[in-house]
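User: Second chain of the day. Same drill as before.
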Amino acid sequence: MPHAVPATRLTARLQRADPAVRHGVRRLLTLVCLLPLLLLLAQATVRLKQPSLPLLYGVVVLAGTIAVFHLAYSHYRDPSAQALPLPRRHRAGPALPAEPTVTFVLAVKDEVDGIEACVRSMVSSDCAGLRVVVVDDHSTDGTAEVLERLRGELGIDVLRLTRNLGKKHALVLACQDVTTDVIAFTDSDCVLAPDALRRCVRALVRNPSLGAVSGHCRARNARASVLTRIQDTWYEGQFRVSKAAEASFGSVSCVSGPLAVFRRDAVYNYLPAWAQDRFLGAPFKFATDRQLTGYVLGQRWQGRTLKARHASSPFVTAQDFPERPWRVGYVHSARVWTDVPARMAPLLRQQVRWKKSFLRNLFFTGGFMWRRGVGPAALFYGHVLWVLAAPAMAFVHLLWAPLHGDWWLTVLYLLGVLLKGCAWGLAYRLDHPGDTRWRWRPLMSLFSALVLAWLLPYALLTVRKGVWTRGAA
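Assistant: Same format as last time:
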């Protein structure tokens, strides 16, 4: 690891420096690293004098990538380590106790092989005042027996459902009698670091403006296959860069399932709306993390309507919390690992579920995100445009152009995809000196362009079809 020592020394020196000095050095280093991309962007912008749709698309994607990297590395602060500055005219919520009570909730169905490791990691969280609740959503593979044994050994609460309700309904059922200050969720294929939950709770305590925070997730089975290796580097970037960029504005759009931590007063009234969510005239069955996050981000504009729609629910009648301008953050130091799909078929099914959740949430969060300010709006709608345009761009560059003899356009497109992947790979390398796994990141960009982009139209056509599934095999 020839690069690890210098990087470690530099990091140690920066940690001892004055916060203002650290901030200035970080911005300077970020600018230096982004300089090649900025020069490329300037050259491409000059060429827009003879505009074309592919060139415009490339310029927009490159500009967006630079902006996201700049925000993630120049402006992000871990909220568990310090109180974050608030924008002017933004009021914080009521302060939490120094050691708030926490309920950690998990829903599981047919996870007999992995559930014990997950539950043990939950119980091992070094978080004061912790209650662990596991809901067995009518498992038939021996999961119930494992949970009964763990109940006696670890003192967890286990709810056994006599019929399958689906993940959202199972989680909401478990939250009915929750009175703790904080509600946290994880997924049944995850294992948490002992301090992960505590760091997220500390972030909420130190920053009363935060209504929810996401932890940082990586692949637990990264060495299983080529697919798991490229997903692992992708997860790192999606959290360390994408969520960090959104967190610089307090507007993380998805508090991800592996570790999602909410203030109870920011989310409790909206749990029935989440469980009974409908889209295109039918129940939306996926337990989409984006939608639950949207209820925190947008309750100033949507909260009263949502509560009125479920006015008779115990989640509203028990205590009606005021709608607040909550911010949503990301805790880089809160580590959690998840099993990612090791084979193509489960990976494609997972990606289709995620794209359905993206489409559903677009119609909810997209209706108010512009109200949260220019920065959050640019990140959110820019990402939306990129996702929606990806299938069309893939069609133009990979099918239409070759069929019309314009192979050079195809080559340029693939080179651009690789360039973007290399930029993300460089970010991984800078964060993990000496770790050679950064080389897998460009492959993920290629895989996304060649395979995953085509799934969006299929997800749209089948958006009303959904099942309770988690498998990562």
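The beta strands are 102-108, 130-136, 157-160, 182-185, 190-192, 210-219, 260-263, 278-279, 282-283, 327-338.

User: Great, on to the next one.
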